[in-house]
């Protein structure tokens, strides 16, 4: 666990597709993703994998995201 002590004034969001952090006022963002491309990729994942998991909470989503990084697409 790393603790970020830097003061963050912006609400930084983490893209669930590519893992980039971004702020919602960044040009080109497609909430809740960092870009239109990632938004489309997410839609493609739903269509391809049909992982119709119910949205539980942020913690489980992050765990899913982190574990998926161990596998190449
Ligand atoms: Zn992204």
Write up this protein.
With 73 residues, the chain is mainly alpha-helical. It has one domain: Erythroid Transcription Factor GATA-1, Chain A, CATH 3.30.50. The protein is built from 2 helices and 2 strands. It has a two-stranded antiparallel sheet with strand order 1-2. It is globular. The two termini are 26 Å apart. The model has no long low-confidence stretch (mean pLDDT 76). Zinc ion binds next to loops.
Features:
73 residues; mainly alpha; Erythroid Transcription Factor GATA-1, Chain A; 2 helices; binds zinc ion
How are the SSEs placed, and which strands pair?
Elements lengths: L11 E3 L6 E3 L12 H14 L8 H11 L5
Bound molecules: zinc ion.
Strand count, sense and closure of the main sheet?
A: 2 strands, antiparallel
Bound molecules: zinc ion
Oligomer: single chain
Number of helices: 2
Radius of gyration: 14 Å
Query: Stretches where pLDDT falls below 50 for ≥5 residues?
Result: none
H and E order: EEHH
CATH topology: Erythroid Transcription Factor GATA-1, Chain A
Mean pLDDT: 76
Shape descriptor reads: globular
How many domains comprise the coordinates? 1
Using the 3D structure, state the CATH architecture: 2-Layer Sandwich
Sheet-strand content, in percent, reads 5-15%
Structural class: mainly alpha
Main CATH class: Alpha Beta
